[in-house]
Amino acid sequence: MNPVVVLVGPMGVGKSTVGQLLAERLGVGYRDTDEDIVAAEGRTIAEIFVDEGEAAFRAIEKQAVHQALAEHDGVLALGGGAILDEDTRALLAGQRVVYLSMDVEEAVKRTGLNAARPLLAVNPRKQWRELMEARRHLYEQIATAVVATDGRTPEEVTQAALDAL
Ligand code: S3P
């Protein structure tokens, strides 16, 4: 079983909002690997980072992503860093993957200082620049379609994603 579409892209780009709208429009279910992790672990993502560090979170995330890819046949949104894992990128090859993109200034504006997002808790602009530089090519490498979200409403992004499928 494969998802109809997998949504990837940075934190705060709107994967959950657009994913739910997209699922409604396609008449399929929506699933989000961050939510799977929180439900399975009984603690927030921020708590996992604080308790065990990023590497432990990535291991938990990898397992959750692989399970969701195997089980879910609707719209699946992945956490922003899920594509850092090489095995996960290999699993995504051959699937329909939509990369929701935004530029750094849009990212800073949308997320700001964010305690719930441990990767942005200190200096968001600098952290965003580094994150985007490290990850942009990975998103592009696995995406079958790229949808820019800057200055667009979730409904407009959803329509653009549908057009790109
Ligand atoms: C992360 C993105 C978050 C969450 C965690 C790490 C990242 O997911 O998995 O805070 O590395 O970009 P969202 O993209 O759903 O916010």
From TrEMBL:
Sequence positions that bind substrate: 34, 58, 80, 135
Protein's cellular compartments: Cytoplasm
Domain of life: Bacteria
Protein residues bound to ATP: 12-17, 117, 152
Residues bound to Mg(2+): 16
Oligomeric form and interacting partners: Monomer.
Its job: Catalyzes the conversion of 3-deoxy-D-arabino-heptulosonate 7-phosphate (DAHP) to dehydroquinate (DHQ). Catalyzes the specific phosphorylation of the 3-hydroxyl group of shikimic acid using ATP as a cosubstrate.
Family affiliation: Belongs to the shikimate kinase family. Belongs to the sugar phosphate cyclases superfamily. Dehydroquinate synthase family.
Protein name: Multifunctional fusion protein
Record organism: Streptomyces cupreus
Gene expressing this chain: aroB
Shown stretch of the complete protein: 1 to 165 of 546
